[in-house]
Design goal:
two-stranded antiparallel ribbon, Lipoprotein, five-stranded antiparallel β-sheet, 3 helices, alpha+beta
């Protein structure tokens, strides 16, 4: 019996880990979750990261990380964020609904001076309802437009060393 419990636990653990094994930081498939980039010119890119959840900071960090990778892949040292936008789309999904049918009988007793009579009446009712609320789901997308550069990095709050960003924001394994 103990062996069966251990086997069931192991199978359950594998199923759970298989469902959650897709990494957060990944290339987006189609318009799905993950990072994407679009080349605007030789030194300008639009980079985005889309995630499900409520962690805006993680989405912004991963967009910066992808900007750093694009910068290094193209032989540049630094990048400047020229435009930043973070979109949060909250929606309520899968509202709970219910349909019901009940059948019962109403018993009515009438009493006179001498006797009482009881009569039974059938009663049916139908009900339908929608639970307002359901589950809340969020989709966060961080979009950056960046300009790539080499050599001396501009001294602004919006310029970043690509190598430092990559070292600091890469997912830890």
């Amino acid at each position: 019996m103990k062996t069966l419990n251990v086997m069931l636990f192991t199978v359950l653990a594998l199923v759970i880990s298989g469902c959650s094994s897709q990494p957060d930081y990944r290339k987006a498939e189609g318009s799905g979750y993950g990072y994407q980039e679009t080349k605007i010119s030789d030194t300008q890119y639009r980079v985005s990261f889309k995630a499900r959840g409520t962690d805006k900071t993680k989405a912004m960090d991963y967009a910066l990380l992808r900007a750093a990778e694009v910068t290094l892949e193209n032989g540049y040292d630094w990048f400047v964020v020229t435009h930043r936008e973070t979109l949060v789309d909250r929606e309520r999904v899968q509202p709970d609904t219910s349909l019901g049918y009940t059948s019962s009988r109403d018993m009515v007793t009438r009493c006179g001076l001498v006797t009482c009579t009881t009569t039974s009446y059938p009663r049916t009712s139908m009900s339908a309802g929608v639970h307002i609320g359901g589950n809340e789901s969020s989709e966060i997308q961080s979009i950056l437009e960046v300009k790539l550069g080499k050599g001396m990095r501009p001294d602004t709050d919006y310029s970043f060393s690509a190598q430092e960003v990559k070292e600091n924001l890469s997912p830890k394994e």
